[in-house]
Amino acid sequence: MGICVKCSARLVSACLVAFFFVGCSLPRLEATLKVEPGVVVMAGKTAEIKANIVKPRNNLEFIWRAERGTLNPQHSTRYETTYLAPPLPGQDRVFLEIREGTRTLWNGDVILDVTRGEEPTASTPRPSATGYVTQPLTVQTLTIASFSEPVPLGPFYTPGQGWAETAVVVDRDPARGRVARLAYDVSQTGDYAGLYVRFRAPNFRPEEWPALTFWLRGDSGGYTRKLKVELKTREVKSGWKIIYINLTDQWQRFHLRLSDFQPFGSWDSMDEFVLTIENHEATAPKGVLFLDDVAFER
Questions:
Q1: Gyration radius of the chain's alpha carbons
Q2: Could you count the other beta carbons within 10 Å of the beta carbon of residue 6?
Q3: What residues of the chain score a pLDDT lower than 70?
Q4: Would you say the C-alpha torsion 145, 146, 152, 155 has a positive or negative sign?
Q5: What does the buried/exposed string (b/e) look like for 94-124 if buried means 16 or more CB atoms within 10 Å of the residue's CB?
Q6: Cα 277 to Cα 175: distance, rounded to the nearest angstrom
Q7: Hey, which of 198, 199, 236, 251 has its CA 20 to 30 A from 91?
């Protein structure tokens, strides 16, 4: 199963419709993340993180996110951001998404060690300033849905009592563009609700695309912090993974290994990505979630 590295204008247009077929991928960037003065940062101190791009382009947008620390800026056209370490020591991870319009061209992250100690001295060598990227330098993506074009998207819910509604809307962040919106109600015992996205991936091999990624945020009016992510097949059986998420009303990228999903039938017949919210698991019985850029990655 190959990836189209060079696409004509007509082929790129074809790549953007509804769902993407195996064998075609949008052009990607080659980039690394560099941390100055190094990947060891004292608690409460700052470091500069910069994206080094092999072949820079115009009109790129940089969306930064940290698991524990804070970043300034978080969303800009600048190649760098200032990281402020949290007050307590431990490991932190900084994520970067590079976008061109509504397209994601590169995703990467770097792990930082936040310490409570003295600055390194001559007897304490400072670690390499280049940091390290925990994903391949060139990330390849098989996109299921970016919602910038029509996508087979729909709701489902408990017949007769649950409720869900889906729509493709323009996000409040203009750079993200069109995203999927799920409004749900699982207030009664036994209720479930969610959304599905249908796609085609003939001859899919999990060893070639070992990770599932997507972006998710909640609405300020309320949302669950626990849900089920499913990959379904035409054989009805599902591979699923329940995830607890430290979700906020800001966009976050989730990266799930396919090996973590419950096993099911043939991957060749996989044709649905599903988010399911269940009454007995939901931390908020009513709410709204937003979804974007669902993809397999290697």
A1: 20
A2: 6
A3: 1-28, 117-139, 234-239, 241-246, 263-265
A4: positive
A5: bbbbbbbebbbbbbbbbebebbeeeeeeeee
A6: 28
A7: 251
Distance CA 239, CA 224 (A): 21
Coil, strand, or helix at residue 126? coil
Concatenated DSSP letters of 86-112:
-SS-EEEEEEEEEEETTEEEEEEEEEE
**pTM, entire model:** 0.56
Beta-strand runs (E) in 67-218: 70-72, 75-76, 80-84, 90-100, 103-115, 141-145, 153-157, 163-170, 178-185, 192-198, 211-218
Q: What is the pLDDT of residue 8?
A: 32
Model confidence pLDDT, tens digit, residues 241-283: 666 666 788 888 888 888 877 766 677 778 889 999 999 989 9
Residue 159 neighbours by CB distance under 10 Å: 6
pLDDT, residue 7, reads 34
3-state secondary structure of 260: helix
Phi, psi dihedrals of residue 54, rounded to the nearest 5°: -65, -50
User: Cα(146)–Cα(249) distance, rounded to whole angstroms?
Assistant: 19
In order of their start, the domains of the chain are 29-136 (2.60.40.1080), 144-297 (2.60.120.430)
- The tens digit of pLDDT for each residue in 159-190 reads 888 899 999 999 998 878 899 999 999 999 99
Report d(CA 84, CA 68) in Å as an integer. 9
